[in-house]
Known about the structure:
Blueprint (H helix, E strand, L loop, with lengths): L2 H8 L13 H6 L2 H7 L4 H15 L16
Family: Belongs to the mitochondrion-specific ribosomal protein mS41 family.
Subcellular location: Mitochondrion
Keywords: Mitochondrion
Amino acid sequence: MTTEKFLKTIGRECEKYTDKFESWDVLFTATSSDMRHKLSIPTHQRKWILDWTEKYRQGIDPYYIRPSRKKKN
């Protein structure tokens, strides 16, 4: 698994930030603060990346989850 493949698989436009992570270690050791201040990653993608890196640590392979649609009243 590469950082590019990981970010593309989890979706939510995270693949735009593959160039921000120089290596696999940088991806998995970056904190929310690092992603915000040093890497300039928006909140939505930052939370999504952090959530998926934790799931991967727990043994869950990444997969695409389609964003839910907003309900109309």
